[in-house]
Amino acid sequence: MDSRELLKKYAAGERDFTKIRFNSRSLRGADLQGINLSHAYLGCVDFSDTNLSHADLSRVKMLGAILNGVNLSHANLRGADLSGADCIGTDFSFANLDEAILSGADFNGADFYGIEMDNAILIATNFRRAKNFNGPGQGSFLCKTFLGDGDFIKGPDWLE
């Protein structure tokens, strides 16, 4: 599915795009509030300044996606893979990031107000200057991770 087709269907009232394989490179500035993209493949897509609040992005693959300035407030990102994503200035307030994979993602200036992050996998994740980040929750795995307070979690030696 390409961006034109998705936006046309969304404008017509469709919200369920479960398991789509997106083959466009940009949805910049779109208003996709409440969309269901669970289990979709959205790698390397530019979502800059897009409204994805209240979206279901559970188990989505967004490897290398550009999420700068995106509104993800109240979004379900449970089990989402945001490895290598740019999330600069992104609003994650009250989002569900349980079991999310955030390896190598950049969260500079992101807003994490109201977040509890259980069972997240945080490998080479940069939370430097992340606003309102409460830290990873119970059962989270951290390795080579910079937390918002400047702490660096090295992780186990066997990963060196």
From TrEMBL:
Species: Aphanothece hegewaldii CCALA 016
Name of the protein in its database record: Pentapeptide repeat-containing protein
Superkingdom as given in the UniProt entry: Bacteria
